[in-house]
Design brief:
This protein is 35% helix and 28% strand. By secondary structure, it is an alpha+beta fold. It has a 6-stranded antiparallel beta sheet. Strand 16 and strand 17 form a beta hairpin. Helix 13 packs antiparallel against helix 14 and helix 14 packs antiparallel against helix 15. The chain is elongated and about 90 Å long.
């Protein structure tokens, strides 16, 4: 039986027009299958485009030979730190040697006459080969993430139809870590691969076939419920090509997943619409890591309160709120009176512990909605939005928290501070620098008065 006949013979009822070839041929990811001898037996056009090779040079050739040829013709491969790497560090080679999967490895390839292309690569042995010749085979997926590192270049999307039987192609789909969902021309579900079922918390896909997308568990990144017409599958059916639409999948039985959705229409050889497919790339862990990095970038490494960058961000926001709502903004600039003495007498370890103590006491002295930060050395700042004339009460509360005789690592320390105040009255116009200058001047006056007393 011919390949297409095999596929159509095994399709579910009413889904004859959506073939596995066209689904794989619509993925933005490159797909490659390497047998147990290291010979490439499947390589779609997206993968060919990413590695800059022709099908005739890849299919039937050992993967290691392909890589060696790439190197010998001037090609270079870089790791995530942009350090050149050798063939032994390739994900496919690693999987062959260890049998372990390589997940989300980041590489850059640079052809002799082109710039770097960044790839996110996954490689793993087939989970449940349906044919004996697939025992020990490795499936490789590669995604062009150049835009995330360099520019907004379009991902390569031209993929060729694979001439394999339905079960052969299904194995590939089932091993993709990207979620794949397809609908027919009437918008009825025809396919969910295992990754997509996991994303959506679907335990019985048979109940989904024949139903239409509703976006019931899809949300925008700001938490707003996604409108049905904004569902990437619906947009694709309407003729739109959707690339990397950021979404959040919320389901009561599974953890929220943040995804990038790429979708497009499926058409037959006569350019007639036969359905649509969406590929969902899970970026939950990556986004979480980036948020943690962003949060760390705004924290002082020693005291764990805000740093100068956080202060600059907060003072701009607080001034905007003050102008918009007509509330008073108070800026307190705090300088420790005897920090240099403590450092010189007891050493930096005691000095650092004193700074940590000050940060903790400031957090206890002000409200959760107030902003505190360490600008450097022994200089701290507090920002407060006030409804009335409570700025002196706030100053007194902070001063009380920073007036104490304490012991740090067995060393007696007299904690004292000078606190300057700058005020932006409701309805007045004052620049950020002028507000800071006013608080600094006030603080230095207080410190000078202490010296003369």
């Amino acid at each position: 039986m011919a390949v297409i006949e095999l596929i159509e013979h095994n399709l579910k009822p009413n889904h004859e027009e959506v073939t596995y070839e066209s689904i794989l041929g619509s993925l933005p990811e490159g797909v490659m299958l390497v047998d147990e001898n290291g010979v490439v037996i499947v390589c779609n056009s997206s993968a060919l485009g990413l590695v800059g090779a022709k099908a005739s040079d890849v299919i039937g050739t050992r993967y290691e030979e392909i890589v060696n040829k790439f190197y010998s013709t001037g090609g270079v491969v870089y790791d995530e730190g942009e350090v050149e790497i050798g063939i032994e560090d390739h994900s496919v080679i690693k999987t062959f040697k260890t049998g372990l999967p390589v997940k989300d490895a980041l590489f850059a390839i640079e052809h002799k006459n082109s710039g770097k292309i960044w790839l996110r690569v996954n490689s793993m042995k087939l989970l449940q080969p349906s044919k004996s010749e697939l025992n020990g085979a490795i499936v490789v997926t590669m995604r062009n993430v150049t835009a995330e590192h360099t520019s907004k270049e379009q991902l390569k999307t031209a993929l060729r139809a694979l001439e394999r039987d339905k079960e052969f192609l299904k194995v590939l789909l089932d091993n993709l870590q990207e979620g794949i969902v397809a609908v027919d021309a009437e918008g009825r579900f025809t396919l969910f691969n295992p990754a997509s079922l996991k994303f959506h918390g679907i335990t019985d896909p048979e109940k989904m076939y024949g139903r239409v997308p509703t976006a019931s568990d899809l949300y925008e990144v700001d938490g707003k419920k996604l409108e049905r017409d904004d569902n990437p599958l619906i947009r694709a059916l309407m003729g739109e090509y959707v690339k990397d639409q950021p979404l959040v999948i919320k389901h009561k039985d599974v953890e929220d997943r943040e995804i990038l959705a790429t979708s497009q229409a499926l058409k037959d050889k006569d350019d007639e619409l036969i359905g649509a497919v969406v590929a969902m790339y899970d970026v939950t862990e990556r986004n979480s890591y980036e948020r943690k990095l962003a949060e760390l970038a705004l924290k002082d490494g020693l005291t764990k309160i805000g740093n100068r960058l956080k202060f600059n961000e907060d003072i701009a926001n607080y001034m905007e709120v003050s102008n918009r709502h007509g509330v008073k903004l108070a800026l307190f600039v705090i300088d420790l009176d005897n920090f240099k003495y403590v450092n010189d007498k007891y050493g930096h370890l005691v000095g650092d512990e004193l700074l940590i103590e000050v940060g903790d006491r400031l957090k206890s002295a002000v409200r959760p909605e107030d902003s505190i930060a360490r600008l450097g050395g022994d200089e701290f700042v507090v920002l407060c939005l006030l409804d009335g004339n409570d700025e002196e009460l706030v100053r007194a509360r902070i001063l009380s928290a920073l007036t104490d005789d304490i012991e740090i690592k067995g060393c007696p320390v007299s904690l004292r501070a000078s606190i300057g105040l700058g005020i932006k009255e409701p309805g007045t116009v004052i620049g950020r620098d002028d507000l800071i200058k006013a608080a600094d001047i006030d603080m230095y006056k207080i410190k000078a008065n202490k010296i003369t007393q």
